[in-house]
Amino acid sequence: MPRLALDPLAVGALSGAAAALVFLAPATPMVGFDGLFGSRIDGGFLAGHLLIGAIAGAAFARVIPQRGGGEQASRITLALMFGLILWIVGPLTIGPALDGEAPTWSVEAASVHFPSLIAHLMYGGGLGLLLAVAARMGAGRESEAQAAGRLAAQPIRVVILGVGFGGMRTAQRFEEAHWRVEGLDVTLVSRSNFLLFTPMLAEVASSGLDAQAISAPIRVACPHTRFRHADVQAIDTAAKTVTARPVGSAEPEHIPYDHLVLAVGSVPAFYGLPGLAEHAFSLKTLEDAAQLRNHVISALESAVHQSDIAARQALLTFVVAGGGFAGTEAIAELFDLVRSVRRYYPGIGREEPRFVLVHSSDRIIPELSRELGDYAREKLQRRGIQFMLGKRVAGADARSVTLNDDSQIPTRTLVWTAGNQPSPLLRDLPCEHNRRGQVIVEPTLQVPGLMNVWALGDGAQVPDVREAGAFHPPTAQHAIRQGKTAADNVVAVARGHPPKPFTYRSVGSLVALGSRTAAAEVAGQKFSGLVAWLMWRTIYFSKLPGMDRKVRVALDWAIDLLFPRDIVLLPGAQEVTVPQADRRDGAVSETPRPAPVVPQGPEA
Amino acid sequence: MIRADRTYEWLLAGALAGLVGGAVLALAMLELGMMESMALIVRARESMGVGLIVHFVISAIFGALFAVLVRRQAQRNDAMVFWGLAFGVFVWFIDPLTVHPLAMGEPVTWSLANAQSSFGLLLGFLLYGATTGLALLILSRPALRRPSLVGMGIGAVAGLIAVTIAAGLLSDQGQTHLFAALSADAARPLSWLAALIIGAIAGGAFGALAQRPADSAGAGIIRGAMYGFLLWVALRLTILPLIVDGDLPWSVTEAAAVFPSLFAYLVFGGFLGLGYQWLRGLWRVLFDEADGADDEESVGARGLRALGRGIGAGVVGGLLFTYVMVQIGALRDVAGLMGGSSEIAGLVIHFVIAMLWGAAYGLLFRRQSYDFGSAVGWGVSYGFFVWILGPNTLMPMLLGATPAWSAAGASSLTASLIGHLAYGTGLGLAYHFFERRQNPWWIPRRQADETRLQRRRETLQTAAPALWALVLVVGASRCP
Description:
Number of strands of chain B: 0
Number of helices of chain A: 17
Number of strands of chain A: 24
Strand order of the largest sheet of chain A: 7-6-5-2-1-8-20
Helix content of chain B: over 70%
Number of helices of chain B: 18
Structural class of chain A: alpha/beta
Helix content of chain A: 25-40%
Structural class of chain B: mainly alpha
Order of helices and strands of chain B: HHHHHHHHHHHHHHHHHH
Shape of chain B: globular
Oligomer: heterodimer
């Protein structure tokens, strides 16, 4: 059969015009017949009808792709229905409107336009038939072999590193609007196979939520993205390859890319302070949260039968370094956890547990207004949480935390939220970095000097185009929007269009303060107390990825309302350790806590 | 077995199938006394013999054309019978309404009066199309799988449930006898018994015909409603009257008199399709160890998302419908549902209803449309079904009246039908838009997905509303 090389639109227009002609031709001698769109047939209108028929045919062919093969008959019946819709839209609706009358769609009107109904159905059927014949001849459609060949010849390989908010959103954006039919082959590489919903991480550490409730599997969230469960080891921007070692394999593999999106997030930074890497808990990953939770419960278990006052006091002292969002939420949640379960440890007095927040500035949560920061501090202080403002943690050992004024706090629990640094992976990239180690990017998120490399999230310093010299803060809110911009820009560049700069103004910030209170600043308005807490829960609940996670979190919250927090020590929990010098009752010997695993973690 | 790659075999098979369909049509034409006039087409005198020859030649030609059209589908798809129905209508436009007058040297008049006088032929051509489709299906698949007893049993149970609903609604109107073509003075229990027997048998036959369940409950409903329509033509208007009265009530006035049975059969078919789909699913879960459920998303994940998208799409469809509502001033009537009378209350209730039907659409038609064409197809079919269940049935019931499925009642709701079709269009399009934004499921990732996708593309998508609208306009309009 001869193959016709015609565009689908042209085929549609020709078929539409021919179908219009076919049903107009026998209709011409009729008396009182009204044509395709309700207008009277005479010589002058014939061209008009052909034109409208052609436009409708082209529209149909454009919207309903002709694939040939096994869909032919359904497409013809669909075209028949298209005729019915045209009849309703044309003679029954637009026709009266053109005559200055309101359409009635009554059975009388339908009866009057009955010949036109027949004509329209015939037009639809004829159009479908002609398109099917054209498709059989190969015109107006791309054969499957051609389509496969086009995709296979030049797919654009996009590799995304990291599954934080930014990386996940980038992948989802590719899925939403730029499907694989566009010739994109998107691969996401990460050590972690889930997105961690970090705003609720402190609640996991305080036993308020199950770990799984706040982690969304990548394969569920991005079903059309190729996922590689692997450790990224190196990036070669000259050869345009990423070297990654699949989890469970010793052999690294090389993943080539045309576009690389760096969304690797940040890891805790201890700034070389002595003892911190060994003795401090960070709060960046699910593993961190689970370890901290187990450690706190284990500390309570040990304290109950610890007769030495000093050792007991150290076990019951919980220190958090850093008074930002993460630190404030962590101390509030730890307080809630201990208070909620203390009754099961009858030997521990109500006033015994001590909570200390160390912060270098004179006010906590500097991202919020001073008013709200003070509110948060006062609220927590009233519960008995102690604030050491204007001080820094200078070091830590198994028994205590040392501050920069050389004072010491005897404790077994130090949570470090006072510093983050971009993933070490970015350090070796041959591009410009800022003082903190972030990659300096253009407003379009492109990394200058590196072809088709894009960076976003915690690891990138993104200039704010609306304010010279200003940069977007490294928050989840921004990372999510940057992910969308990065995906759109990759596609724009691939199509030869210029990329657009990233612009976003934060809607607001919320911090949970435990005990059904929170502080929030949304659209310039300040909220606090129960209202802010409800806002916090509503907003973050709505942002949870996946309906099943929402259900899990809702259930956990409901349980938390009715029951005390869980104090089961999960298998593999590190027992809290009591140094030799403090031993009075046969507690275990001192061992440092295992060094925290700090892979390219999800972003904060 | 006929091979799809041999054109001449196909044309021959189509012609043979056309002859089988033509034989059915010939019986009807003989009954209607129209066969002799067929001879006039070849400029011969009116004669039975020549008329028969002409008729069978034309039947064979159209059969061959049908075979060409469905060639790619024939070996795989059970929907052939329904394509046959659509083809029958198309032939009705072409042959008695157009070619026949032209061949006779008469002016072509596609007028309503002409269509109404050809109503019997419309039914005949519907039967011709369905029979041709069925014959071609059998010819192209001689090794048809034996119908499974389980499928037929489930079909019979679904049929009993569906007929209880449909005949129950007829019973409210005092018209139960219409379902089984009994006379108006037939005893009520007898009417019910006949309806239940028909429901069980028709359901069992549906289970035998639908060798493979539809891909979603929504597709099941539309497939079932098409089956209901076929039953109305073949059983209610043809076989049953021939058995009961020995007569074919194929004139438009006679059809209008039994109009409530059209809705009853459509409702019966729709619920049969839905019930069959659900019961098959239940059977699969309970007794079929090798089910394909592991390829499906879990109910919670798919259902809630589909519900949300359906509600959103319902609002879009409702917006389109609002235009019609405002034009025909129907908002006050809707307000009456909740005892109100203001247009604002009517608008609010209208949108709530639009969202509820939209939510149901989301659940029933999830992952069924893969482009805007199929989206319109499903949406419009659904809109038509909602029109039967909504303004024709539920709305009068909620207003404290009994539904009246009369031709007059339906014709007074034509504007509402247009509104519902507009609603369905908006609903289907918006739902597809929402679904494809988040998860373009029709881009296959695995072989299993590819197979399922291909199956859905071959699913009838659907000229049903066009057929029903046509029959409605022809049947429900006043006779000249």
